[in-house]
Amino acid sequence: MRKRDPRIYTRLTHPLVRDSRDEPFRQAGWDEALSRAAAGLRAARGAFGLFSCARATNEMNYVAQKFARVVMGTNNVDSCNRTCHAPSVAGLSAAFGSGGGTSSYAEVEETDLVVMWGSNARFAHPIFFQHVLKGIRNGARMYAVDPRRTSTAEWAEGWLGLNVGTDIPMAHAIGREIIHAGLANHAFIRRATSGFEQYARLVEPWTLSLAEKVTGVPASAIRELAHAYARAERAQLCWTLGITEHHNGTDNVRALINLSLLTGHVGRHGSGLQPLRGQNNVQGGGDMGAIPNRLPGFQDILDPEARLKFESAWDTVIEPHYGLNLTEMFEAMEEGTLKAVYCIGENPAQSEADSEQAVRRLRALDFLVVQDIFLTRTAELADVVLPATAGWAETEGTTTNSERRVQRVRAAVTPPGEAREVIDILRDLAARLGHEWKYADSEAVWNELRSLSPDHYGMTYARLEEEQGIQWPCPDPTRLEPTYLHGRLWADDPAERGRRAPFGLVRHDPPVDLTDETYPIRLTTGRRLDSYNTGVQSGGFASPLRRGEYVELCPEDAERHGVVVGEEVRVSSRRGSVLAPVWVDTALRPGLAFMTMHFPDDVDTNRLTIEANCPIAGTAEFKASAIRIDKLPAVTVRS
């Protein structure tokens, strides 16, 4: 098979503009580029959306969402949080009123049991997995719940290889077994939760034998995990996109949260819930308000007092309704009601499910501005491209990781060419649209955020540096809060306990894209250790682990299709097809295939995935597409 050369993305160093959609880009000065951008956005006021960047700083995300709400008068602002962990935020918020993971990384090292559910953390979150390994060395037991026997599962005491899309039956069966075995923490349930009786009735049909039939996991393995989790003194339940990237992702998250409420594994040191965020500041982007339903500090836009506080500080009127999320903005492009987009550091042309449809919708916009460090596939569709600094090396500010820890980042190198600081670009664009913002530096932005977000008020730059990072909430500049959230649930005083955490009454709903005789294989997607997202940032760097994109099959399926490692095949779904070489992986079971999105310029996996979205969070079902494998006809070589 021919050697595939990955596309190498070169750094943007000068603004680019088009004189018409039919003409190529030409280099422009900053004044011309910003004036064109301002004119295009001004014309689309009332039909505008902003995509913010999960790899940029908190300060940039704060200014970006402020730009949308103050300058453009809309709450249509979102980021790639929608593509991955929006169901985690929605589920945690519904249960506890806060969308962050409840524990610290250090607590994973000191717990008794770790459950990795839908998470190949060894590849996708290798830094976090080092904490897991320390926990195992300290005596913790680990269980892995995943359709694939992943690299993470190799470290587990038990692997539960469930069928894709059967997480709720698995969770319900575990919950039922805990109740029937007399292992539920009824003191905590009475003290801190609501809806237990309805939950118990909901899970009652999910016997171990029924769960075995639906999930494919032996009843004895389900029982073992249920007893281990309930009997552990401290337990951490961790998940990633194997739970969230489903059409019912929020329900999946609620099903896992139910298990923590049932056992009291939340609100205590060493016991909690850990949604592992994949990008360096996807947590911070949401915290800063770069989402359509929350203001900075995770304050609800529908709360009149919260709106008044921001309106007074910003001298504006904030729309008293939720904006469109990323998924809804793409649907509005199709309908023609969203006419312009300002896309900062995102590549939805290749990261969205059903990528051909995503490109068609982006092309339908009247005006597209892309601000990035590379000329991505999305940037190639733009009218104006603005070269920005790299948030992790060329700018000052902060980021927030999965354990809610805010940390300082500093400029280490000078940006190339005419690339500019991202906050300066937003400030200058706002000025052309009638809003003069006087930010001397990133610290000035941060201090404005602190004045409006109680959770961040106690975090000055000086204190962040002194403490080497601080977890929110931190409302007091003289005190640090516990590393875990929701300790209030254990308080004796009902007033201190506050709102009870409700059990989520969610039901099994199989994948939308059903397998059948025409499309008999279930495709699930994920990450590899050597590459990152759509490969824009990682594709240009060599790795001894990287082999490019393959469709991975189990040995039985490869034999059944008569294909061997390296042989190119056609992979087709109900939305499109791609050519990809075969890789054989014993971690897979018959009927299950695996691919990544790391090499879309070579094998565009998202042409296969389905845009079946979670109605609560808007996240697509990347993890459950139906495909078929077709062997290509032999090529006759003439002498």
Q: Could you explain the architecture of this structure?
A:
With 639 residues, the chain is an alpha/beta fold. It contains 23 helices and 27 strands. Strands 2-1-15-14-13-3-4 form a 7-stranded mixed sheet. A 6-stranded mixed sheet has the order 21-23-22-27-20-24. A 5-stranded parallel sheet has the order 7-6-5-9-10, sandwiched between helices. Strand 3, helix 2 (58-71) and strand 4 form a beta-alpha-beta unit. The protein is globular.
Please give the structural blueprint.
Blueprint: E1 16-17, E2 26-27, H1 30-43, E3 48-51, H2 58-71, E4 77-78, H3 86-96, H4 105-109, E5 113-117, H5 121-124, H6 126-137, E6 141-145, E7 158-160, H7 167-180, H8 186-192, E8 193-194, H9 196-203, H10 208-215, H11 219-231, E9 235-239, H12 241-244, H13 249-263, E10 272-275, H14 282-287, E11 294-295, E12 299-300, H15 304-314, H16 326-335, E13 340-344, H17 348-351, H18 355-363, E14 367-372, E15 384-387, E16 397-400, E17 405-409, H19 422-432, H20 442-452, H21 461-467, E18 470-471, H22 494-497, E19 501-502, E20 521-526, E21 551-553, H23 555-561, E22 568-572, E23 577-584, E24 592-596, E25 610-613, E26 620-621, E27 625-631
Parallel strand pairs: 3-4, 3-13, 5-6, 5-9, 6-7, 8-19, 9-10, 13-14, 14-15, 20-24, 21-23
Antiparallel strand pairs: 1-2, 1-15, 11-12, 16-17, 17-18, 20-27, 22-23, 22-27, 25-26
Helix pairs in contact: 1-19, 2-19, 2-20, 3-13, 7-10, 7-11, 7-13, 10-11
